[in-house]
UniProtKB/TrEMBL annotation:
The keyword Aminoacyl-tRNA synthetase does not apply. One of its GO terms (cellular component) is plasma membrane. It comes from Psittacicella gerlachiana. Residues 239-392 form the Glycosyl transferase family 28 C-terminal domain. This is UDP-N-acetylglucosamine--N-acetylmuramyl-(pentapeptide) pyrophosphoryl-undecaprenol N-acetylglucosamine transferase. UDP-N-acetyl-alpha-D-glucosamine binds at residues 13-15, 125, 163, 245, 301, 346. Belongs to the glycosyltransferase 28 family. MurG subfamily. Residues 6-140 form the Glycosyltransferase family 28 N-terminal domain. It is a peripheral membrane protein.
C-alpha cells in the first residue's frame, strides 16, 4: 500500500516551526510520509532535519521595512518562489499541504492551489496574519488556535499544537507546588491577622479561596504589602524569565535591577533567565555589578517544560506557543508583549489568558525595573495559585489530535 504524504510549510520562528513539528510527529506515528518546505537562511533549515524530516527550500523573505526597491522587486521574487514551490509539489506529490505560518506559506499555498492539492492552514496567533488571511480565502480548511471571529465553525478553534512533554502534563500535578505554598501562606496569614489586628475571634484554619480572601481583606493597603513581602520572603520565590530564543533586550536590561529592588525589600528570589544568543556576558556583568546571588543566566533552555514547572512565576514575551505552553503547565506569568508588530499579535495572544484572570500583563512601553518590582511585591502565593488554577480550562493539550483528525479525511480520499 502506497504511503500517504503530507507537505508541511512553516518557517522563520519557533512559534511557526514547533507547532508544525508536533503535527508532523503525530502524523509520522500513523505511517504518513512527511516533507517540509522552508527557507535556507532561517531556523527551520537546521532544526527540521534534526527531527528526521527532509526539507526543501524556496527563496522568499518578508517585505516589512525592506524599502521601496524591495517592494518593486517583490512581484518577481514571489512569482519565482511560487514556481519553486510548484516544482517541489510536483516532485514530492503530497496528498495534502499543511501550513502553520511564516513567509514560506504564501508561495507554497498558492502552488498548492495551482496544482489542485488540498490545503489546510493553521493560524496560531490571536489575530490572523496577512498571509493566512489571503490563503484562507481558497484553503480547503482553516483552523485556529484562538477563538477568532474568522473561524467558520466553533469546532475549527482547536488550540495550539504542542510537543508531547507539554500535552502529557496533568493539571492537578502541575498545581500542587503552588497549592502547597498557598496553604503554608494561609497559616502565616492567620497569625499575621491575629497579631496585626489583635484579632481574638477563632479563625478558620483550612486554606480555601473564600477563607483567604476574607482574612486578607481585613488588612489595609500597607498591611497587605507587608504580608506579601513576608510571605515571599519565608517561601523563596522562584522566577523564570524567558525572552524567546533570541532573548528580549528589555528583559535583559530590567530584570536584574528589579530582582535587586525585591531583595532590598526583603523578598528572597531564585532567578533563572534565558537571555538569548550573544547576550550572556552583558547580563552576567549586570548581575555581578548588582551583587545578586541565586541568579542563573543562560543563552537557551532546552528542557523548558521542566523549568516552567520548577518556577512560581514566569516573566516572558507572549508568542502564541509560549502562552499555551504556560497554560498547559499551570504557571502564573507576567506577559510583556512584543510591541513591534503592526497587528499586535502578541498582545492579542496574552489577552487570551489575562482577560480571564489567568495571567498578568505589562505593556512593553510600561515595562521597566520599577513597574516589575511594583507588580511582584503586590503578589502573594494565593494570587499566584488562583491565576494558575484559571489556566486549566484554557489549556489545549488535545489540539494536535484535533488537527490530525481534521487532516485524516483528506488522506482517505
Amino acid at each position: 500500500m502506497t504511503k500517504k504524504k503530507v507537505l508541511i510549510m512553516a518557517g522563520g520562528t519557533g512559534g511557526h516551526i514547533f507547532p508544525a513539528l508536533a503535527i508532523a510527529q503525530k502524523l509520522t506515528e500513523q505511517n504518513i510520509e512527511i516533507a517540509w518546505v522552508g527557507t535556507e537562511n532561517r531556523m527551520e533549515a537546521n532544526l527540521v532535519p534534526k527531527y528526521g524530516y527532509p526539507i526543501y527550500f524556496i527563496e522568499i523573505e518578508g517585505l516589512v521595512s525592506r524599502g521601496a526597491k524591495a517592494w518593486l522587486k517583490a512581484p518577481f521574487k514571489i512569482l519565482k518562489a511560487i514556481f519553486q514551490a510548484k516544482k517541489i509539489i510536483q516532485e514530492f506529490k503530497p496528498d495534502l499541504v499543511v501550513g502553520t505560518g511564516g513567509y514560506v506559506c504564501g508561495p507554497v499555498g498558492v502552488a498548492a492551489k495551482l496544482t489542485k492539492t488540498p490545503l489546510i492552514v493553521v493560524e496560531n496567533n490571536g489575530v490572523i496574519g496577512l498571509t493566512n488571511k489571503i490563503l484562507s480565502k481558497f484553503a480547503d480548511l482553516t483552523l485556529f488556535s484562538y477563538p477568532l471571529k474568522e473561524a467558520k465553525k466553533p469546532e475549527y478553534i482547536v488550540g495550539q499544537p504542542l510537543r508531547e512533554d507539554f500535552t502529557k502534563l496533568k493539571s492537578e500535578e502541575n498545581l500542587q507546588p503552588l497549592l502547597s505554598k498557598a496553604q503554608n501562606e494561609y497559616q502565616e496569614l492567620v497569625r499575621f491577622v491575629q497579631e496585626q489586628l489583635n484579632y481574638q475571634q477563632a479563625l478558620p484554619d483550612t486554606y480555601t479561596k473564600d477563607n483567604f480572601t476574607h482574612l486578607y481583606e481585613l488588612l489595609d493597603a500597607q498591611q497587605k504589602l507587608t504580608f506579601n513581602n513576608l510571605s515571599l520572603s519565608k517561601q523563596r520565590l522562584n522566577i523564570l524569565a524567558v525572552g524567546g530564543s533570541l532573548g528580549a533586550r528589555i528583559l535583559n536590561q530590567n530584570l536584574a535591577p528589579a530582582i535587586k529592588n525585591l531583595e532590598t525589600k526583603g523578598i528572597k528570589v531564585n532567578t533563572l533567565q534565558q537571555v538569548g544568543q550573544g547576550n550572556l556576558d552583558e547580563v552576567n556583568n549586570l548581575v555581578t555589578e548588582l551583587s545578586l546571588e541565586n541568579y542563573t543566566v543562560c543563552e537557551f533552555i532546552d528542557n523548558i517544560s521542566e523549568k516552567y514547572l520548577q518556577s512560581d512565576l514566569i516573566i516572558c514575551r507572549s508568542g502564541s506557543m509560549t502562552v499555551f505552553e504556560i497554560a498547559n503547565c499551570n504557571r502564573p506569568a507576567i506577559f510583556v508583549p512584543l510591541a513591534l508588530q503592526k497587528d499586535q499579535q502578541q498582545l492579542h495572544n496574552a489577552k487570551y489568558l489575562t482577560d480571564k484572570g489567568a495571567g498578568l500583563l505589562i505593556l512593553n512601553k510600561d515595562f521597566n525595573a520599577q513597574s516589575l518590582t511594583s507588580l511582584i511585591e503586590n503578589l502573594n502565593y494565593h494570587q499566584l495559585y488562583q491565576i494558575a488554577l484559571k489556566q486549566t480550562s484554557l489549556a489545549t493539550p488535545e489540539a494536535t489530535d484535533k488537527i490530525v483528525k481534521f487532516i485524516q479525511p483528506y488522506l482517505n480520499r
